[in-house]
Each structure stands twice: as C-alpha cells, then as structure tokens.
C-alpha cells in the first residue's frame, strides 16, 4: 500500500493523516501572533506621527524564524511519502507548498493544494481519504 499523507495546516497547527498506518499526528506551530505582540506604543524608538521603530522588525524576524521551524518540523514528518495532499484555511498551506516544491523528491509526490475551512479531525481524515480514493 502506498504511503499517502494529507496535511491540513494553518498558523496554529498541522494535522498529518497517514492513511496506510491509520494514524493522525498533530504538529503545533508555536508562532507568535499579532495579538500577543506588545503594543507599538510601549516599545521602540519614537519616530513621530505615531510610528515606533525597533520592536516591529524584531517581532517580524522572530515570527519568520518560528514559521520556518514549524514548516521544517512538518517537512520532517512527511518525508518518504508517496503522495501528499495539502489543504487548509490560511496562507500557511502555500508556504508549505513552496517548501515541498523546494525538495526534489517531495515535489514529485505533491498531488494537490486546496483551500479548506477549519475542520474537525474526523473531517480532515475523511477529506484525505476522499482525495486518495
């Protein structure tokens, strides 16, 4: 049996469904969200007209590194797949697609990338089974 995997992904977690092993793995993102970010009024250098400098660049750089670590973690879990289906509600699926396409072996097994709403675990498993039926 082929090792087909489905990955539902957003900015908070990825749910990886392995049909052959009948398993579901959840990978948490641990990415800072804007709502957890300290207000621009409280930090950085005041530049006038309500602008601050310093913390915003630090925040964006930290978020970029956290996103890269998250996607690398997901990539480590899907290595060796014979077929990969990526779907989810946010732009994170597009970032994962780019990572997959940069890996020569995985790029050939990427079957589809689709938009999908927030789903329950059972709905995610059903969508992956439907894709590879």
Structural class: alpha/beta
User: Briefly, what CATH class?
Assistant: Alpha Beta
**CATH homologous superfamily?**
eRF1 domain 2
Poorly predicted runs: none
Number of domains: 1
Number of H- or I-type helical stretches: 4
How would you sum up this structure, described in words?
The chain is an alpha/beta fold and about 130 residues long. The model has no long low-confidence stretch (mean pLDDT about 85). A 5-stranded mixed beta sheet has the order 3-2-1-6-7, sandwiched between helices. It has a single domain (about 5-35, about 50-130), classed as eRF1 domain 2 (Nucleotidyltransferase, domain 5, 2-Layer Sandwich). The two termini are about 10 Å apart. The chain contains 4 helices and 7 strands, in the order βββββαβααβα. Helix 1 crosses helix 2 (about 90-100). The chain is globular, with a radius of gyration of 18 Å. The protein is about 40% helix and about 30% strand.
Descriptive labels:
five-stranded mixed beta sheet, 4 helices, Nucleotidyltransferase, domain 5, 7 strands, alpha/beta, 38% helix, globular, 133 residues
Q: What is this entry, summarized?
A:
The protein is α/β, with parallel strands linked by helices and 133 residues long.
What's the topology here?
Blueprint: E1 4-9, E2 13-18, E3 23-28, E4 45-48, E5 51-53, H1 55-78, E6 83-88, H2 92-102, H3 104-107, E7 110-115, H4 121-131
Parallel strand pairs: 1-6, 6-7
Antiparallel strand pairs: 1-2, 2-3, 4-5
């Amino acid at each position: 049996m082929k090792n087909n995997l489905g990955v539902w992904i957003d900015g908070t977690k990825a749910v990886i469904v392995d049909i052959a092993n009948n398993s579901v793995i959840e990978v948490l993102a641990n990415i800072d969200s804007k709502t957890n970010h300290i207000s621009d009024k409280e930090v950085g250098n005041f530049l006038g007209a309500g602008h601050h400098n310093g913390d915003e660049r630090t925040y964006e750089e930290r978020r970029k590194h956290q996103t890269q670590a998250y996607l690398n973690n997901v990539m480590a879990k899907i290595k060796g797949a014979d077929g990969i289906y990526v779907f989810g509600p946010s732009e994170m699926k597009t970032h994962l697609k780019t990572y997959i396409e940069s890996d020569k072996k995985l790029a050939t097994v990427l079957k589809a990338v689709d938009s999908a709403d927030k789903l329950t675990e059972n709905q995610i498993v059903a969508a992956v089974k439907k894709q590879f039926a």
